[in-house]
């Protein structure tokens, strides 16, 4: 006997439709329908005052980064500016242009509202995040900003640094913690912040640098992400896990649902019975 999940939105109840976590004064960015579907209904908006952490494996993170291009276009249409720290080197201006033409928007206007930084090593990443804090303090208070950091920790634990720094990865841990502290402060000020993280990077760090307890970094990153969604790809499906959300009780911090239309069945079923 098996169970067919028809509408996973019913599983997560009202917490994505509930009143804003920060009340009526929070700024809301509605997500494109395609991204809502990819997140299996766990999230329908980004919210000011919170850091959203989207974590995925190789294929999942590529899809998330692609979907974020439409998010950037949508916020610019609503007179927002975008600050993009593209550690993953995934920003594609040609994709921006293609999506803009589909929506009859001038891509030049959108690109002018996106401030792009591409750090290539950990110290640049930390410096840019610190500069971001200074830059935002000089902006008009009424100017709304979406801050996106792709693959936030990938450069903070570059294994090539280990040959140069005998204390690796402890200094990098301090840099990352400091950068996350800056971002948390910006969120408290009311900015909307989205971070992405590559799952495989975390796993490889635990295997290769586990003796220095890189898991401390993982807990720091997870603590910063008040909304945390993890996605992993399978051959015939994807798994979406809601790791953390402010509307979840402490007993419900881990919620897992299958992709829409996926059949959940007994592992002993044969292939003929499965199909």
Poorly predicted regions: 1-24, 210-217, 250-257, 261-275
The end-to-end distance, rounded to whole angstroms, is 13 Å
Alpha plus pi helix count: 9
In total, the number of strands is 12
Please identify the top-level CATH class.
Alpha Beta
The CATH superfamily bears the name P-loop containing nucleotide triphosphate hydrolases
Tally of distinct domains: 1
Question: Which fold name fills CATH's third level, the topology?
Answer: Rossmann fold
Q: How do the strands of the widest beta sheet line up side by side?
A: 6-5-7-8-4-9-10-11
Categorize the overall geometry. Answer: globular
Q: What is the N-to-C succession of helices and strands? A: EEHEEHEHHEHEHEHHEEEEH
Determine the strand fraction and express it as a percent band.
Answer: 15-25%
- Structural class, from helix and strand content? alpha/beta
CA-based gyration radius? 20 Å
CATH architecture: 3-Layer(aba) Sandwich
Major beta-sheet overview: 8 strands, mixed
Write the topology of this structure.
Layout: E1 3-4, E2 28-30, H1 33-38, E3 45-47, E4 51-56, H2 58-77, E5 81-86, H3 93-102, H4 107-112, E6 114-117, H5 122-138, E7 145-150, H6 170-188, E8 192-198, H7 199-208, H8 215-224, E9 227-233, E10 238-244, E11 255-257, E12 263-264, H9 271-274
Parallel strand pairs: 4-8, 4-9, 5-6, 5-7, 7-8
Antiparallel strand pairs: 1-12, 2-3, 9-10, 10-11
Helix pairs in contact: 2-3, 5-6, 6-8
Describe what this molecule looks like in 3D.
The chain has a single domain, classed as P-loop containing nucleotide triphosphate hydrolases (Rossmann fold, 3-Layer(aba) Sandwich), CATH 3.40.50.300. Helix 6 links the parallel strand 7 (145-150) and strand 8. It has helices spanning 33-38, 58-77, 93-102, 107-112, 122-138, 170-188, 199-208, 215-224, 271-274, and strands spanning 3-4, 28-30, 45-47, 51-56, 81-86, 114-117, 145-150, 192-198, 227-233, 238-244, 255-257, 263-264. Helices cover 37% and strands 20% of the residues. It has 275 residues and is an alpha/beta fold. The model is unreliable at 1-24, 210-217, 250-257 and 261-275 (pLDDT under 50). The protein is built from nine helices and twelve strands. Strands 6-5-7-8-4-9-10-11 form an eight-stranded mixed beta sheet, with helices on both faces. The longest helix is centred in the first third of the chain and has 20 residues, at 58-77.
């Amino acid at each position: 006997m098996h169970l067919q999940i028809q509408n996973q939105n019913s599983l997560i109840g009202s917490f994505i439709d509930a009143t804003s976590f920060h009340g009526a004064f929070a700024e809301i960015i509605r997500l494109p329908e395609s991204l809502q579907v990819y997140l299996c209904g766990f999230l329908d908006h980004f919210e000011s005052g919170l850091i959203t952490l989207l974590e995925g494996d190789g294929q999942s993170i590529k899809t998330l980064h692609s979907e974020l291009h439409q998010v950037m276009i949508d916020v610019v249409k609503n007179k927002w500016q975008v600050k993009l720290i593209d550690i993953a080197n995934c920003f594609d201006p040609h994709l921006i242009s293609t999506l803009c033409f589909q929506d009859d928007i001038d891509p030049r206007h959108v690109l002018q509202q996106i401030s792009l930084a591409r750090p290539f090593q950990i110290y640049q990443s930390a410096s840019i995040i610190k500069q971001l804090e200074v830059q935002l303090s000089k902006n008009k208070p009424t100017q709304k900003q979406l801050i996106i950091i792709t693959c936030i920790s990938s450069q903070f634990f570059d294994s090539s640094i280990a040959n140069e720094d005998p204390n690796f990865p402890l200094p990098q841990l301090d840099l990352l913690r400091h950068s996350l502290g800056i971002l948390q402060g910006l969120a408290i000020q009311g900015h909307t912040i989205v971070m992405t993280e590559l799952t495989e990077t975390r796993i490889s760090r635990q295997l290769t640098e586990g003796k220095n307890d890189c898991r401390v970094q993982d807990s720091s990153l997870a603590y910063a992400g008040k909304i945390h969604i993890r996605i992993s790809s399978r051959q015939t499906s994807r798994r979406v896990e809601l790791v953390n959300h402010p509307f979840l009780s402490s007993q419900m911090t881990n919620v897992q649902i299958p992709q829409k239309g996926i059949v959940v069945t007994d592992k002993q079923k044969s292939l003929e019975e499965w199909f």
